[in-house]
Amino acid sequence: MGDARIIDGKALAAEVRARIAVAAADLKTKHGFTPGLAVVLVGENPASQVYVRSKKKQTVETGMASFDHTLPAETAEEELLALVDRLNADPEVHGILVQLPLPDQIDADKVLERIDPAKDVDGFHPMNAGRLSTGQPALVPCTPVGSVLLAKQARPDLTGLEAVVIGRSNIVGKPVAQLLLQENCTVTIAHSRTRDLPGVTRRADLVIAAVGRPEMVRRDWIKPGATVIDVGINRIEADGGKSRLVGDVAFDEAAEVAGAITPVPGGVGPMTIACLLRNTVQAACAIEGVALPEV
Ligand code: NAD
């Protein structure tokens, strides 16, 4: 491995959670409410089950209220929409998260648009996406927020940096690009049709890889000293029939050239749930009409 600084996502996530726990306790004693997060899981996707379990656990550990709704895979769209309506109307619920992917019979866009934008802690509602892109206060998707917080661990001021985001999804690529614009980066969004991706990426002072292709970003794609944030989570076969997680960046190679880099696991992953809890506190304060504590 080279000289790159390893940006520790687990440590930063623990710091964020500690601040949230203090804020949640304060809101309870000073304002008489507990931020509450409802998590809706439809079906039995194993990755979603693991993810939802961690969200619930961390919600409770930070002193917030967790409301669980697990529905069978054959749930009709109307039934899920009716649940969203009930959660929208429930005063104890400040954040609503419908775990994706949803089964085929359900139109995910329709469900996401049914969530009250004020309770949309995933930040996927078009209202929040529009607010983010027009620079208004918004609930911003969690993984992009976490990625930018990690980049700022290495470079507290991102102003003027050449940033290349690889991936243009609504969940990661586009919102992270919007956040980087707000941080005054010069932003390029690269994707599957980009010509000479290595050449484009090599220009970047900051690379954010959100592709879903194991170890695609190689050593010679990285400008010496660049900050590399690896959003990808890919399970690949390892020796002895086991499997292991790798990112979209060939970590050992990239670490020889980069100035700072996030590992997988232990980088962006832990930050995502921490930022979800942060969004829940933000939503709760806005709904209850109290000032947002420093989280
Ligand atoms: P997605 O499949 O929706 O989007 C992938 C993007 O990559 C697309 O925009 C596509 O244009 C681009 N792409 C595909 N092949 C490419 C290629 N060969 N060259 C350049 N670009 C290419 O995926 P997503 O939801 O944005 O997630 C991306 C990755 O991030 C996945 O590995 C996912 O598991 C991971 N992820 C991690 C977290 C986390 O908490 N750390 C959260 C969300 C997603």
Q: What does the model show?
A:
- With about 300 residues, the chain is an alpha/beta fold.
- About 40% of the residues lie in helices and about 15% in strands.
- Nicotinamide-adenine-dinucleotide binds near residues 190, 191, 194 and 212.
- Nicotinamide-adenine-dinucleotide binds near residues 172, 190, 210 and 232.
Multimeric state: single chain
Strand content: 15-25%
Topology order in helix (H) and strand (E) letters: EHEHEHEHHHEHEHEEEEHEH
Tertiary shape = globular
Describe the protein's topology.
Layout: E1 5-6, H1 9-31, E2 36-42, H2 46-61, E3 65-71, H3 77-89, E4 95-98, H4 108-114, H5 126-133, H6 142-154, E5 162-166, H7 173-182, E6 186-190, H8 197-202, E7 206-209, E8 227-230, E9 234-237, E10 243-246, H9 251-255, E11 260-261, H10 268-288
Parallel strand pairs: 1-11, 2-3, 2-4, 5-6, 5-7, 7-8, 8-11
Antiparallel strand pairs: 9-10
Helix pairs in contact: 1-10, 2-10, 6-7, 6-10
Bound molecules: nicotinamide-adenine-dinucleotide.
Nicotinamide-adenine-dinucleotide is lined by residues 143, 166-169, 171-173, 190-192, 194, 197, 210-213, 231-234, 268-269, 272.
